[in-house]
Amino acid sequence: MASTSLETLPPEAELALAWSHPAVRERLRTGLQLDRRLARIVARTTEPMLGQMRLAWWRDALGRPVADRPRGDAVLDAIGHHFAGHETSLLEMVDAWEIMVTTPELGQDEAEAFARGRGAFFAHLGSGPGAAEVAPRLAAAGQCWALADAAAGVSDPAERSVLVTAGLQQSGAPRRMPREWRGVGALEALAQRALRRGGRPLMDGRGAPLAALRGAILRL
Known about the structure:
Blueprint (H helix, E strand, L loop, with lengths): L10 H9 L2 H22 L4 H15 L11 H9 L4 H16 L5 H11 L12 H23 L3 H15 L10 H15 L11 H11 L2
Helix pairs in contact: 1-9, 2-4, 2-5, 3-5, 5-6, 6-7, 7-8, 7-9, 9-10
């Protein structure tokens, strides 16, 4: 299961990282890297049992102390550096992606559970004073991103509709984001825009950079 290479992140993720405070950037990058790895596992799964076995490797590795984990996987090693002590939220991400492997027909309940688990790590991006206060705000942004990105990636129109509906119900009106997390604000703004456009890719269209800028600056 180990891979010495990091995952290639999409343009909206790189944009969010560029806007992020240095204290937040590497933890956000690490969470997004794990998400891409798990998404790749799910995308390549043709038999649910095999997909569950591959996801179980990550569940087992993240459940161990850092010193007892396998060495040499670039993403797992980064987790040890930047997410030690906060692996519970990453285990929620593994469980979320398992929903996509085992659910025969995606419904509203499954979409909401997927969003909660996939975006859970956003609540743990901060570690300083005020981090606990902003955690629910970050978690909401993570859920919005999780649904928008998934909607843009599925091929089934019915599944896309479910994900978009869940995302629109969750996102609500734009909310202020503290300066340290302005990269998350940019990513959330792009996600909300994508959902309003019916599940289009987050960076689709000429208006995407402006939406990200507004999310990063005008919500401070």
